[in-house]
Write a structure and sequence with these properties.
Elements (H helix, E strand, L loop, with lengths): L6 H5 L15 H11 L6 E3 L2 H15 L10 E3 H9 L8 E2 L2 H15 L15 H14 L4 H15 L2 H23 L2 E2 L7
């Protein structure tokens, strides 16, 4: 199991720490202990709102602070995106950084790809979201929309005589379209949008 550290030791750690360990080794508990030391200068994003609620309750119990004190700093990824999107800057559009783009794509991959899909086995592979982001950036820079990409599938698939190409590209179109819809729905722009 991971060893508990003193609040003083945890407070002097670098802002980003990778915690590795087997299932049940205490990774989550170590993360929560570290968060409890400086909850007002840290943002803890959970995979779901249910998980965020569990973390808030645990932190309240451990720190003796009310659960409400953790409402803003312990949240789900989806809620954080919604909150960012509802507070746009002056021009009403929020511009995204590459790390935030990768987080959006990782979330979309988890939601939209099934294990039985062509790309389903890769959705949890390290670097998959980065590779997908680079592909989308290339398409956007060459002015290829999800609709244009989808329209090209039958012809190219027939020329290549490849059902695999049709299936793989269809899944890429689905992710690309979902990414673009997400940006539009939340008044977000990525760097490639700024070039047009």
């Amino acid at each position: 199991p991971l060893h508990k550290e003193s609040a003083e030791t945890q407070a002097h750690k670098p802002p980003i720490t990778l915690i590795l360990g087997a299932s049940g080794s205490g990774k989550t508990e170590a993360l929560l202990h570290r968060f409890a030391v400086s909850p007002h200068r840290t943002l803890l994003l959970a995979a779901s709102e249910t998980q965020a609620k569990t973390y808030r309750e645990w932190l309240a119990k451990e720190t003796q602070y009310p659960v409400a004190d953790f409402e803003e700093s312990v949240t789900s990824f989806r809620r954080a995106v919604r909150d960012i999107a509802t507070h746009p800057p002056f021009d009403k559009i929020k511009h995204l950084s590459l790390p935030f783009q990768r987080m959006i794509l990782s979330s979309l991959c988890q939601r939209l790809l099934n294990p039985s899909d062509f790309l389903g086995q890769m959705r949890e592979s390290p670097g998959f979201a980065n590779a997908l982001l680079e592909r989308i950036r290339e398409w956007k820079l060459t002015c290829i929309s999800p609709d244009a990409l989808e329209a090209s599938i039958p012809d190219i698939s027939a020329r290549l005589e490849s059902e695999t190409y049709r299936r793989k590209t269809g899944e890429l179109v689905r992710l690309y379209r979902a990414y673009e819809e997400f940006l539009k729905e939340h008044n977000l722009r990525d760097p490639e949008d700024l070039l047009h």
